[in-house]
Amino acid sequence: MTELSSSHRFVSLSPQSTDGHFFRPPLPPGHVLRPRLCERLASGLSGRLILVSAPAGFGKSSLAIEFCERLPPQWQSLWFGLSRRDSDPGRFLERLLAGLQQFFPGLGDDALGLLRLRQRHQPFAFEEWLDGLLDELTLRLKPDSPVLLVLDDYHLAQGAVLDRCLQFFLNHLPAGLLLLVTSRQRPDWHLARLRLSRQLLELQEQDLRLTEEETGELLSRHGATLSEEALADLLQHSEGWVAGLRLWLLAAAEAVVDGEMTRPHGAEGLIREYLLEEVIERQPPEVQAFLYDTACQERFCAELCDAVREAHDSAAILEHLQAHQVFLVPLDEQGRWFRYHHLFSDLLRARPAAALRPAPTSAHLRACRWFSGQGLLDEAIEQALRAGQPDVAANLVQNLSEEQLLAEQNVATLLRWKMDLPDSLLASTPRLIVLYSWALALACQLDAAEELVGQMSRFLPAPSAVQQQSLLAQWQALCGVIARGRGESLSAQRHCTEALAGLPMERYGQRLMCLSTLANLAIVQGDLWRARGLNREALELAQRVGNPLFEALAHYDRARVLQARGEVQRALDEVRQGLERLRGLPHQRLYALRARLTLYEGYLLSLRLQPQLARQRLTAGIAEARACRDVSLLIGQCVLAGLEGREGALAEAFARLAEAERLMHVWDVPPIYYLAMITLAKCELWLRQGQFEVADAWLVRLAEAYNGEQAAAAPEFHPQLPLYIELHQAVLERQQGERSKAERRLRALVQRAQAMGGELLAVIARVQLVLLLRASGQEREARQQLSDALQAALGGALSPFQDLLKAHPDWAREQLLAQPEGSQREALLAELPTAPAVASVEPDMMVGSLSGRELAVLKLIAQGYSNQQISESLFISLHTVKTHARHINGKLGVERRTQAVARAKSLGLLT
Length: 911
Description:
By secondary structure, this protein is mainly alpha-helical.
């Protein structure tokens, strides 16, 4: 725990004392120290204004007290606790001057007399009075002994005249004086100039929310721990609201069972009373009515509120709520969409039934009509269902195009609607049948999808030949995707090919799904060139229709082919192009495709030996895939398990795979989607554990299933699975000493991979062959195979060499130094666990020249942290991080981060 500085002078002025006794409140009992925020506030000491504005109970005053106690020794602080009486500018200025006189005796004696002679009913030239006082204060202030003036709870005194006074005060603030203001609403000051000149530091609600670690610290102060479920519930509902957590925990004493807290009872009443007294009842009647009328909406804007309330004043009321910080959470940068803080909305919705105006049913129906008119069909459908009108919801579902569903692939929402709609409605029209069949197919509910798509026969023959052809083609497309899911390659290829021949161009979404399926099958069949051609056709179609989601899908499919060909960097660029196409879409919406691209970016980063960045992207992708109910999260879990296995965290890796398998069971996903992938990932872990017998038994079973006479088709997410089974069998044979069998298998695998253009697999097999040849004493061929592998890996694959670098670091360094200079060679040299010191630089001297903080920054740079992440990890400002980075580069004689890491490793500064 950071020791608080108390060596600086301070004076505080409380609203209860007007007799010259000044007092700054102490930190409240159980206060959780917040050094990360104090560090941010400290970065504003060179400016003019530090503004901390947030709703009630977010710890503004406590943070200001903690910051005052942490001030550098040369700083003095004046605490000014405001009350409603201070809204009189004359009284405020009189008290302010009395406080400043504690530091500067005699300051403004004449001005004080003039202020006391004023009459309330007569106008007073406050700005002229301030101008004279500031001139005198400027002569008294010393740069080496600055003063921090704290105005706590400014919202209590805020008014038009006082705002103008303090605006003038800020505009003419002398050097050596800094203003810190805490308030529940942003003062009505013109701050743009201060912001542009970097003289303003501002913290708001999102900055003051308690982090998970700070919440844990708060819990530990109560001497008990929450269960995992209760903690998750507490974090979700409190959203980091300090007062809400304290009120919640105030009722926790009775909820402690065997030393562990369950969800505390009674806290809801305390929070209700606090919010009612501190927030709701302080609002004007029309604002209170607005709060209750709009509480049933998950998100809202002024136009929606007008529609729900049948009124025209919502924009003005929302401006009032924003100005007074009444628990509004903005949802976009434009300031159009909002929601209420969860605890606040829970309270509003719990009001007595008699107070409901309008009734929830009518409110939801009005919202439904408004959303439908805006083209926001998914939200309109939600509102219809919440109003208890499934027939209205079904009619709206029919307006959802297959293209929108196939582009977003967020089937969780559609399946949730399915649960609320009667089965008779689901099969009532061809459109509903097609929509829900696609949703079930994308969710891997193959049996249910097949059963529902069979219902299309009831609508045949169609009224016209054109409709007949369209229905049959849509049926073919669905059958093709379902067959691919079952691993029935020939049937899938036939159905998708026939669907492409019959689908009209306006069904471009289904055409693109067929092209994607056929490209995936081409990879399975080892025809990467055909897959590449299908990818090109899909991208051209997506660009022609101008749909960013389908363009992103085409980039995803192209990246998969490029990765298989060993062009890892190009694949990574392709994935990032896909993500860039999604950047303009609403960020709050969930997209399965964005999850897949994010996961694939993490996988490619792992191939580039950037594990820290890979973990970040994989974790983000898993979260979004889980929310969309997309089975692609399996990729992320398997890749993360592989990373953990290579780092020796085998227990964590097995647990991750078990969790992935459990989730597949919960989602009722057919085993063909996941079982082989998870089993192969386990085999890799068993090989690292030395459990050869277990690995052997399962590899034999996998080989029989996917490489036997009646081989099953590889799963969609691992189209080259049969070849990777062969690879693991070769690794097992090498580790068991069966070198001849391993060598034959590896050489055959290299040839098969190269014949199909699968250079990545060929590189992996060559590196394993190098390890085998070195163990057999075949030094010359080992060098040649490594040289060939390095040449084939110029596309950016680095992870295949990782085992070799660890097993034979000195030999690998020698071989790498014999290769032409380039980014690949430098990156691999930087991964070597040890390196001899460069003759011109003594490592001990270099260690001494780098400070402890610079070494800490350098270690995080080596792990792939961004400057912002380093700032948050080390609790230092972003400017300080950049300064350390410049010093590190200068001392190591390099220009870029990657060069600094490579140089430090070669000097032995990093291991």
